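Q: Can someone sanity-check these two? First one:
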Amino acid sequence: MSNKSHDPNQMTGAAMIVRALIDHGVQHLFGYPGGAVLPIYDEIFQQSEVEHILVRHEQGAGHAAEGYARSTGKPGVVLVTSGPGATNMVTPLTDALMDSIPLVCITGQVPTHLIGNDAFQECDTVGITRPCTKHNWLVRDVNDLAKTLHEAFYVATSGRPGPVVVDVPKDVQFATGTYHPPRKDDVHVSYTPRLKGDATQIRKAVALLASAKRPVVYSGGGVINSGPEASKLLRELVEATGFPITSTLMGLGAYPASGKNWLGMLGMHGTYESNMAMHDCDVMLCVGARFDDRITGRIDAFSPHSTKIHVDIDPSSINKNVRADLPIVGDVGYTLEDMLRVWKAKAPVLDKAAHKAWWKQIDTWRARKSLSYKSPKDVIMPQYAIQRLYELTKDRDTYITTEVGQHQMWAAQFYHFEEPNRWMTSGGLGTMGYGLPAAIGAQLAHPKSLVVDIAGDASILMNIQECSTAVQFNLPVKVFILNNEYMGMVRQW
């Protein structure tokens, strides 16, 4: 027994959690304490490698971690207590699942012998979070904890990123067991996301693109999730082909808004030219997007005469909403790299006359200036306010977050993004109250940058308590509120 006490890998479950965070390079942990996580907090206070950011509500912790993840490409990490702590995380977990944001959420749980007894601050965290996480675990044995934590980080960040939950009962936090650093066999053999797309499919895709008369590239958040290299490759592909490109709300910044081939955002709140081009195209290259209902509208009337190439790392996204004529399962970055190589090697001869006619048609649609607006003398129009914000901040190192509603769509339309990871917004779930905590997360990750939360007067109140977190940690986030004294989007509908 005496030898064991000197073994540096013998430690409590609570110590294992902190050690795992350090081993995975976590620098900031967003959390809110409670009875079921006190052992973990005791360990946090005995080290200085992971900084704990005390939020004012668990939902704020989740969105702050999302902003952190979205602006850095690293996973956001959250620690909350059992019961209401875990249930308050349901909204950010669902938000992260819809928008493919990597989050690792550690929740406390009542001691194992009380599970199922309706104990104080008990809830079935694994049951509640099953539909809103990529995967979740309840750890009943301290010797399973290290493996589970390492697996959690792997699942959250590989393949299509997403949120995971590790639920740790209080007695497991107190128990002593053996810790081991991350290793290859900590991962389920059943989960190995495919990175490289099928070479034959890629060659077919290039042949289709080369023969197109009215092509369009439709990019999504998957390009940004794949990393900065994927955005670079997307730009190279657009340059090499000369094709027009549009993007979803989540994909803004992957291709620069100042680029000559940019059609603007697509979908319900997108530009006239991007939607018309999607409707009339003959070959569509969809990269890292999922044919969401905000893009397609009526499925039967969406781009009815086009051949659709769909590149996505998540096989379940392909043929889910819209049938793909040529599916390619793989990471966007790897697939674009292969596509570019084949394109350059082939050096295809394009139908220049057809492309010229296509661009002429696009210019006719552009000439309608679909985003123009009237400016009365006695009021500041919200579109104008955002245009001015853009002009005054475009030369600075700026990150933009938004709440949800009209201001969010105006920000997407009138703030022009040149780079990926600069735009953080709640796309799939449309969560009011996202912007302020997300700005706090982004500011923490980029202390010298300008971080602006574009907000509405209703949304900002949803997580207004996080102003206190910003003050406590000296995070100079700017909140740009478009106050029209209405829940604008609801009123508009």
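And here is the second, same format, sequence then tokens:
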Amino acid sequence: MLSLSIASFAQSKGTLTGVVIEKGTGETLPNASVTIVGTYYQALTDFSGAFTIDDIKPGTYTVKVQFIGFSPTQVNGVKIKKGQNKPL
């Protein structure tokens, strides 16, 4: 019974995935910080610029990306739905 409860709980949240790239060159940015504004959800990109943030409550969020030497960038209106893997 406990495992069913945990599986059900996990499906009630969503996941945000993506790759951070430098707009001018198209190069990926490893170790960039990706934060969902107003929450504790955040991740660092891996060597290939990819990130994943799991267990996000459904809702509409602003995602902020920061990397040393670049101005922070925000993406508004990112919708996370339960059980969804949202690519950004």
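A (reply): Looked at the second one. Confidence is low (pLDDT under 50) at residues 1-10. The helical segments are 2-11.
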